[in-house]
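Notes from the 1:1 (GR / supervisor)

We went over the backlog. Supervisor wanted to see one worked example end to end before approving the batch request, so GR pasted a single chain during the call. The sequence is below; no edits were made to it. Supervisor asked that the structure be written out right there so they could see what the output format looks like.
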Amino acid sequence: MSAIFVIDDDAITRDAIAMVLRSEGFAVRAFPSARDFLRKSDGEDIGCILTDVEMPGGVTGLDLLAEVSKIAPECPVVVMTGRGGAFRSAAGALGACDYLEKPFSVESLLEAIAKAMASSMKVLAAE
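Structure output shown during the call:
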């Protein structure tokens, strides 16, 4: 089963999102930074990436989005931030399939994940 990769430096947010997604039956892998994800992820079984924009360690969520679009352009990425819409156009230009402003509802999260996973399935079906 493909996993949803949750990347957020805020442990409370990361753990809460992971708990919600697991309760909905998703496999989840969580990382505290984009750099940690890039170091530890083998790239296998990624169904979707859900990433915060602003994180420590020198690699932002937008940097991660640009990297993922090069190495796995079919991988859907949902970007989330507490900074409002300032990053929306940049995320869209880099290929984000959805954008969530914190705080967001569980329903908004699940809708974004469903949309991302559906786009991933369309790519796989076309191959």
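Supervisor's comment: The domain at 3-126 is CATH 3.40.50.2300 (Rossmann fold).
Batch request approved.
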